[in-house]
Amino acid sequence: MIEERILAAKQYVKTLFADRADGHDVAHTLRVYTNAMRIAQAEGLCNLEIVGLSALLHDADDDKLFQTENNANARMFLEEIGAPKKQIDQICRVINAVSFSKNRGKHPESLEGKIVQDADRLDAIGAVGIARTFSYGGHKGRPLTDTVQHFHDKLLLLKDEMNTETAKQMAESRHQFLITFLKELEKELD
Predict the structure, then answer these.
(1) For 2-189, which CATH class?
(2) How far is CA 125 from the centre of its chain?
(3) How confident is the model over 116-134, as a mean pLDDT?
(4) Contact, 60 vs 13, CB < 8 A?
(5) Residue-averaged pLDDT of the chain
(6) Of 42, 75, 82, 104, which one has the greatest count of Cβ atoms within 10 A?
(7) How far is 117 from 97, CA to CA, in rounded Å?
(8) Are 132 and 151 in contact (CB under 8 A)?
(9) In this predicted structure, what is the pLDDT of residue 105?
(10) In 44-84, where does DSSP find H-type helix?
(11) What is the pLDDT of residue 46?
């Protein structure tokens, strides 16, 4: 049953994000899922179905992408696959704890929430994070300097915001890569 729900969620997000090319796409969602499952297995003692479904649906109602309220896309999908109301509510709490801008300095209460928040943040740093940042900046028509400022406003802070020991270890090399990249970029822009 768990595998069927995860497969259904993967299909759903492939459809939901089919036309996105701004760094918030199906590839991002699947990387967050992979990171979340890796962290969950290393950390242990968590509900893998909650982690997996939350990771796959974490951007399903992101206000940068959709004009929905009360996790409407996620709730609709979860109801369609027969998830119990208690599980739907738990997944929505995890999803609502992921956003950096809405939860800055806050840490989710549940281990599942911490894992999914970490998994999403890991995809914002390192080589992939750099590529996503410039993809999103270009999509929004932002000047290069505004996109570079985003590194200072958010990305360089993420390493110290990780919740789990596993994610802290995973973040270290990605953070160092950000620093190396920024130094070179700023040198070339001078």
Answers:
(1) mainly alpha
(2) 11
(3) 97
(4) yes
(5) 95
(6) 75
(7) 7
(8) no
(9) 81
(10) 48-57, 72-80
(11) 97
Our measurement of the distance from residue 134's CA atom to the centroid of its chain's CA atoms, rounded to an integer in Å, reads: 17
Q: pLDDT by residue (tens digit) across 6-46?
A: 999 999 999 999 988 888 899 999 999 999 999 999 999 99
Phi, psi angles (nearest 5°) of residue 103: -130, 25
Structure-block tokens of residue 77:
């999908």
Check: CB of residue 30 under 8 Å from CB of residue 10.
yes
Domain ranges of the chain: 2-189
Tell me how far apart the alpha carbons of residues 159 and 132 are, in angstroms, rounded to a whole number.
Answer: 17
3-state helix vs strand vs coil in the chain, percent to 5: 70, 0, 30
Is 102's pLDDT higher than 90?
no
CA distance 61 to 94: 13
Token pair recorded at residue 24: 């918030």
Q: CA–CA separation, 113 vs 107, rounded Å?
A: 8
- Whole-model pTM above 0.85? yes
Query: Which amino acid would we find at residue 166?
Result: T
Q: Using CA atoms, how far apart are residues 60 and 176, in angstroms rounded to an integer?
A: 30
- C-alpha to C-alpha distance for 151 and 124, rounded to whole angstroms: 10
Closest alpha carbon to 164 in 110, 97, 126, 124: 110
Residue 126 near residue 178 (C-beta atoms within 8 A):
yes
